[in-house]
Amino acid sequence: MENIPNCPKCNSAYTYHDGSAFICPECGNEWTAFEQQQAEEAALIRDSVGNILNPGDSVTIIKDLKVKGATSDLKAGTKVKNIKFCGDVDGHDLEAKVEGFGSLYIRSQYVKKV
């Protein structure tokens, strides 16, 4: 059986495929397979050069970053291990523990996958 996605609007599991579109009987939302693919691509988190990041990856900071409440900056070239996805916390989408700084939120646009 074909893998039919949940409705992106109401998250209903009762969606069905009708010709070229997916339809949700609960909210009436209709979307195409192309729109579904675009939404899945947009949900991926990428680093500064376009590599797809996964939880647990190691990354390198590519730019000196000011850390709120710290006496020094996070220098470019600092290696960060075991990243986690945190959703969207003030525009930051990664969480990691950095030696000397503790747990930080980092934007994926300032890291490069190792």
Supply the number of structural domains: 2
Strand order in the sheet with the most strands: 1-2-3
Low-confidence stretches: none
Number of helical elements: 1
* General form: elongated
Provide the residue-averaged pLDDT: 91
Strands, total number: 9
Proportion of residues in extended strands: 25-35%
Radius of gyration from CA coordinates: 19 Å
CATH architecture verdict of the largest domain: Roll
Q: How is the biggest beta sheet arranged?
A: 3 strands, antiparallel
Helix content: under 10%
Top CATH class of the largest domain: Mainly Beta
Q: Structural class per helix/strand content?
A: mainly beta
CATH superfamily of the largest domain: SH3 Domains
Q: Return the CATH topology of the largest domain.
A: SH3 type barrels
Task: Write down the secondary-structure element order.
Answer: EEEHEEEEEE
Distance, first to last CA: 38 Å
Protein name: Protein PhnA
Domain Protein YjdM C-terminal: 45-114
InterPro entries: YjdM, YjdM_C, YjdM_N
Organism: Candidatus Kurthia intestinigallinarum
